[in-house]
Structures are given as structure tokens and as C-alpha cells.
Amino acid sequence: MSETMTHGYVAEGYGRVADAFRRNFRHGEIGAAVAVFDGDTPVVDLWGGPRDPVRGLPWERDTIAPVFSCTKGVAALILAMLVSRGQLDYDEPVVRYWPEFAAHGKDEVTVRQLIDHQVGLHILRDIRMTLDDLHDLDSVAAVLAAQRPGWAPGTRQGYHPVSIGLYLNELVRRADPAGRSIRTFLAEEISGPLGVDFTLGLDTDLGGDRIAHLTRTIGLDLRHERNLPWNQAIPALMRRGQLFRALSVPDLGMPEDFVRPEIMSVELPGSNGVGSARGLARIYAAGLTGELPIAPEVRARIADPGPVPAPDAVLRTPTRFHLGFRKSCPAFPFGSSDHRAYGTPGMGGSLGFADPATGLSFAYVPNRLGLTLNGDRRCLRLARAVFDSSTRRTRTRTEPRRSAAR
User: Which of 61, 215, 304, 374 is the most buried (most CB within 10 A)?
Assistant: First the structure.
């Protein structure tokens, strides 16, 4: 097998990341990109392989791809911006911002409980929603508000793979004085000012041939890439199982079809973000350094390790959620060892996170869809290489050092 050509650069001391990136291609990767920032300085920016293996088109510096649930971390940063402005409070009831949400005993549900997947709203009960329905955000809000919890809020945890994005979107619309949805807020206050490639959904003429062609895992060497444990795989395939039903709100089809116009045209703030590894890592870096208007006390709250990992009724594995982000835990270890890192993995293998202890921000975006809902081994190998690099240093203060951009 010929060695896959990789492109880009790494700063001194990050050679292990380049080695791990090349190793991923030997383990079945198709096309991918990885980016790391130290403060606001880029220290890793690599890409390689084909973005479209059928047509033989190479992955290039400006290639973008769907990142699935990595979108949730960007949405959580938007919530943190609203909290910093006093327009939202994690510990206030959702009904303070969205009165109709009180239906079916949800009047005391806090923002924190909702965004940390503790209310049991991962499926839609007594109604079926289609992609066409998602174009009318007012109608979506009415459907969501009328849902009843799957358990007493705050007593259990169960991952909301798709529905959480819909709830977050309405919460942002209600809390933002301008009434903007997450798509508009992202464009106007994050992606536009930072000049990064990251959008919620995508206009076909905007992406064009820049969008990577997604390929499902078939015939890979599972000795290296067995990421999905049986206790998740079986429920994911069972139509009456919690995970299968949670992934069908609404039915989005197969993951490799996520670039379809009907999916890219709607707002799914937990599922259909599109961007580059560089753009995703840059957004997390801006959150760490304060370039995004997130108050120091809010950044400190996000960086807190959060609760101990709890059994998850949907993922079937102990998982740690905190203020809308995933946190490191045995089933999903990332960042440095103090559990302050925050981010989200995306179905198929993407990952974005920030590590306050080191000031590093990381993103990996592939087009070969792996078999996992937790951190994929490809991205976790790269993350380990980042933190094993000779330049790694743990900072003793909460705020990372600002560094000049290159």
C-alpha cells in the first residue's frame, strides 16, 4: 500500500501529531484534517487523502465536512456567551425564557438540566416530525414545548443526540434580545468575526466541491477500529430501542447522506454543523482566550470538571455532561488529565475540544465514518499525541496565555 500524502505544517515539538496523523491512514482513514491551537497561535494544521475518493479529488486546505455532534459544543459556546451577557442563566428554570415549556410538569426544569440531557426529551412522543417541518421554527417550538419528560427531571441522564439541538435553538431564540436562531447567531457573532469555515447547515452553492464526500465504514480492519461496544450497537439497530428512536428525531437517513440539500437547508444545532478542522479548533481557541465574549467567571465554570460520570440511559455507558459540553471520562478520555477539557465528539469520528489547563484547542474532521458515538480511536490517538508532545506545559492559572497569531 502506498503512503498517503499529507500536507500542512506542525510547529516544533508537535512531530508526534504528524506521525499519528499519517498512522491513521495506514489504519483505514480516507481523507481528514487535524488542527491544534496554542492560545490563538496555530501549531498543527494538517490534511491529507481524498475528499472524494470516487472522483479522485484531494483533500485541500479549504475542504469542509459535516461534523455531526461536534455542532453541540459550538452551540454550548453560544449559550455561554448569552450567560456572560446576563441574558441566560444556567440555574434558572427554562420557563423564565420559554413559558410554554412548562407543559407536562416541566415548569421547574432548569437550563442546566435541559442542556445536560437530564430531562428525558430525547425522543418525540405521540407525534412524528419530518425534515420539512423543521423549516417552521415556531411550529417546532410548539411541538417541543408540548413534550412530556421520560423521567423525573434531574434524576437520570440520557443523551439527546438530535433533539437537544432543537431545544437549544429555541432557548437561544428566546434568550437573545434579537430573537436570532443559532444559525444566524453563529454566522454573525462567531464565524463571521473570526473568519472561519464553520456553518450550521450549508447552502449548496456555498460549499460546492469543497465539501468532503462521506464514506461509511465497510470492510475495515476491526482489530484497530472497533469503536462501538455491543451494548450500544444492539440498541442502535433496534427500532424500539432508546438510541434508535433518539436518532430518528426526525429521521435523517444514513450518516453518509448528510450533505443532502434537505438536511443542509434546515437548522439542526446538535447535528448538522459543517466546517474545517481549522475552523472548529479556532472557535474553541477563541472561547479559551476570551476573543469570544465569554466572561472569565463563565469560562471558569465551563472548565470545572463537572459531575462524576453517570450511567446514561441512551448511550449505555457512564458519561459526563457539563453545561452543554461533554467532559473527559473513562469511556471518552480527552484533553489533559484534570478533566477540565470540554468539547463534543461527532458521530463518525470528528472531535473538537478545548483544554484550559494547557491552553490548547483541538479538532479532527474525517470523511470516513467510523462506528462510534463516543470518541473515535483515530481522533483520540491524535489527541494523545498532542498532549504527549514535548511542548506540552500545564498552566497553573485558569486563564491561558495570549499569544500572537501567525
Answer: 374
Cβ neighbour number for residue 369 with a 10 Å cutoff: 24
Question: Is the CB of residue 244 less than 8 Å from the CB of residue 122?
Answer: no
Indicate the residue type of 102: A
> If you average pLDDT over residues 234-252, what whole number do you get?
72
Q: Which of 72, 41, 35 lies closest to 289 in space, CA to CA?
A: 41
β 215-216/368-369 pair status: parallel
Over its C-alpha atoms, the chain yields an Rg (Å, rounded) of 20
Total H helices, total E strands in the chain: 15, 15
Q: Which three cell numbers stand for residue 259?
A: 450533505
Q: Distance between CA 134 and CA 263 in Å, rounded?
A: 10
Cβ-contact 37, 78 below 8 angstroms: no
For residue range 191-211, what is the model confidence (pLDDT) as tens digits?
A: 999 999 999 998 655 557 899
Residue 231: name the closest of 376, 351, 372, 334 by CA: 372
Task: Give me the mean pLDDT over the 211-236 stretch.
Answer: 58
Buried b (16+ CB within 10 A) or exposed e, 156-178: bbbbbbbbbbbbbbbbbbbbbee
Quote the strand ranges of 138-291, DSSP E.
Answer: 198-200, 215-216, 273-275
The whole-chain average pLDDT of the chain stands at 88
**Cα distance between residue 72 and residue 327, in whole Å:** 13
In angstroms, the CA 77 to CA 91 distance is 16
Question: Any bridge partners for residue 364, and if so which?
Answer: 34, 351
Please say whether the dihedral angle defined by the alpha carbons of residues 397, 77, 315 and 333, taken in this order, is positive or negative: negative
Question: How many other C-beta atoms lie within 10 A of the C-beta of residue 9?
Answer: 11
Which H, E and C letters describe 278-310, residue by residue? HHHHHHHHHHHHCCCCCCHHHHHHHHCCCCCCE
CA distances from 93 to 80, 90, 103, 106, 399 (A): 16, 8, 13, 9, 30
Q: What is the pLDDT of residues 106-133, one digit of tens each?
A: 999 999 999 999 999 999 998 989 999 9
